[in-house]
Amino acid sequence: MKLGSVGLTLLATTAVLIGVASSLLLGAGRTVDWLPASHPHEQPPAAKPVSLAALPENTLALTWQQSMFSPDRKPDAATGKSQATSLAGIRLSGVIIDGQAQWALLRLANQRTLKLAVGSTLDNGWTLTSVTPQTATFLHQGQSQQLSLPVLRLPPPSKAPAITLPNVTTP
Length: 171
What we know:
Strands 1-2-3 form a three-stranded antiparallel beta sheet, with no helix packed on it. The chain has a three-stranded antiparallel beta sheet with strand order 4-5-6, with no helix packed on it. It contains two helices and six strands, in the order H-H-E-E-E-E-E-E. The chain has a domain at about 85-150: SH3 type barrels (Roll). The two termini are about 45 Å apart. The chain is flat and about 100 Å long. The mean pLDDT is about 80. It has about 170 residues and is α+β, with helices and mostly antiparallel strands. This is DUF2531 family protein. It comes from Pseudomonas coleopterorum.
């Protein structure tokens, strides 16, 4: 029988694997040789982390006027006081709850966006009294209204018939 180059390669690989398996069975690799123990290095005592002082509210307010990521950002434009008695045309587009700080992100009827902190008042006199992850509650002259985040839903299934392939016989 004549062996080709592929046969010789397989035969050599088999011989090497048999040799490795037999050396493992005879005890090769059973002992562990550890490096000698070194003396532990003494670390200086770790310094306690410096606690940052709480920033006053007026300093934090500056971050909303000029963003470090968007240098051309401008503060919200002031508008004249309007006398609307309801929240018609105002939609809740987001809620931010970060520890004690709570804000409602609103889209006004004129498509302008506004960030309103709890306790702040809209131009039309409505005061934001509380915020939950899904709603914002407003109060005006003893009347309370609640705005909710829109719930996104999938469109209804199509009523069009399913695509069917023509019955084609193979030649």
